[in-house]
Amino acid sequence: YFYEEVFLSLGKGEQYNIMSKMDEEELKRKALEEKITKIIQCAYNVRGVLPKGFLEKVYKNALYLELREHNLNVTPEAPIDVYYKGVVVGEYRADMLVDNDVIIELKATQCLTRQDEVQIVNYLTALHIDTGLLINFGGDNLEIKRKYREYKKTK
Known about the structure:
This protein is α+β, with helices and mostly antiparallel strands. The protein has helices spanning 2-9, 12-49, 56-69, 114-127, and strands at residues 74-84, 87-98, 102-107, 131-136, 143-148.
């Protein structure tokens, strides 16, 4: 109802601008969701071929190849600079950055820890990226957690 009231009080050109911005945001959101789904499917493809027990680097190399086969632009070992008052005070590397808007952090441990989750959120914060995937190939089952730069309550 709010949108209807706003549209009624605006001229046709202004209504179009608001609608096109809403449509543009919706398209971006859908594209991101499709990309996340594709990344997750790629992780499952890797796990289907490589069982638990390998070093993290093996899964990282395999996932990189899988993501590239699915036409995703992947930056391995993406540099992350942490700034304090305009000065770099820390330097890290994210395992992968996909299309400059999704960070992937890989693990090959029995289970993910709170520290793993904090690490990827810190990377998201430092790079000003909203979404990341924490993927663990080391457990009995593939473990994937979606993390956000800002806290979001999940359903």
